[in-house]
Amino acid sequence: MKELYALGVGHSTPLFVEIAEACGYHVVGLFHYNDERTNEEDHGCRILGSFEDLLNSDVRNKEFLLTMGDNEIRKNIFKKIKDKGGLFPTIIHPTAVISKHSNISKDGVVIGPFVDIQTDVIIGNNTMIWSGAVVCHNTSIGNHCFVGPKALVGAYTKVSDNVYFGQGALSISGKVSEIGEKVLIGARSLVCKSIPENVVVYGTPATIIRKRFQ
Questions:
Q1: How far apart are CA 107 and CA 73, in angstroms?
Q2: Sign of dihedral through CA atoms 180, 186, 188, 190?
Q3: How many angstroms separate the CA atoms of 162 and 213, rounded?
Q4: CB-hemisphere CA count at 13 Å for 15?
Q5: With 80 as the cut, is the pLDDT of residue 209 above it?
Q6: Which residues 6+ apart lie within 8 Å of 48 measured at CB?
Q7: What does the pLDDT look like over 143-169, one tens digit per residue?
Q8: pLDDT tens string 5-50
Q9: Please, what's the b/e burial string for 144-158 (b: 16 or more CB within 10 A of its CB; e: otherwise)?
Q10: How far apart, in whole angstroms, are the C-alpha atoms of residue 139 and residue 116?
């Protein structure tokens, strides 16, 4: 059985662990952002130490799973561990429906249960597609993105890096040509047109609420 270390100890961590186990991995243990919970157990997994402890150890050729939803945090840790020789396998739940004509990065993608990835979809590194989401045909999703449960990303759309689709958000096929880098789309929002970079949008139709990062 393949061994894997999970990074992050939060309410969603057990869901990631279950996806990994469904794909034939044994999760050896967890790493927390600090050392306050070292040697505790969380849902049957031992917390081995902090992120700092991990980065000070030899991670070469070991496999890791990131479980945090914050794209920026996930991107930074991903790069630090990659720079030290760590590996991030792509993990696809066996119930997901994946077109043979899609192109999914082999570098740290996590695809949850009952996801539908259609024809000619491209998915970049370290991107999470969560339970029940749909990515429609001829769409590309960049690096370090998160697509929440039951969200739908419409066809013919370029989704840039570090984009967050909230739970149940929907973008309309053929109406949204591009979603800019670092966009956050609120839960159940309806996206009817392209969105510039670095903004938070929400509503039906989705409108810009504020800048995401100052």
A1: 17
A2: negative
A3: 12
A4: 15
A5: yes
A6: 5, 28, 29, 30, 31, 38, 54
A7: 999 999 999 999 999 999 999 999 999
A8: 999 999 999 999 999 999 999 999 999 999 999 999 999 999 999 9
A9: bbbbbbbbbbbbebe
A10: 13
Q: Are 18 and 93 in contact (CB under 8 A)?
A: no
Is pLDDT above 80 for 1? no
Q: DSSP of 172-193, one letter per residue? A: -TTT--EE-TT-EE-TT-EE-S
In order, the DSSP letters of 196-212 are -SSEEEETTTTEEEEES
Q: By the 8 A CB rule, do 170 and 148 touch?
A: no
Return the biggest CA–CA distance within the chain.
Answer: 51
Quick one: how far is CA 165 from the chain centroid?
A: 10
Q: Which two tokens stand for residue 106?
A: 């082999």
Query: Please, are residues 101 and 120 in contact by the beta-carbon 8 Å criterion?
Result: yes
Q: What is the spatial distance between Cα 140 and Cα 119, in angstroms, rounded to a whole number?
A: 11
| Phi, psi dihedral angles at 61 (to 5 degrees) | 65, 5
Partners of residue 184 on adjacent β-strands: 164, 200
Cα distance between residue 89 and residue 189, in whole Å: 31
- Tell me the per-residue pLDDT of 83-94, one tens digit each, with 9 for 90 and over: 999 999 999 999
Residue recorded with tokens 């929002």: 189
* pLDDT (mean) for 124-148: 98
Q: For 136-155, give the DSSP string.
A: -TT-EE-TT-EE-TT-EE-S
Tell me, what amino acid is at 25?
Y
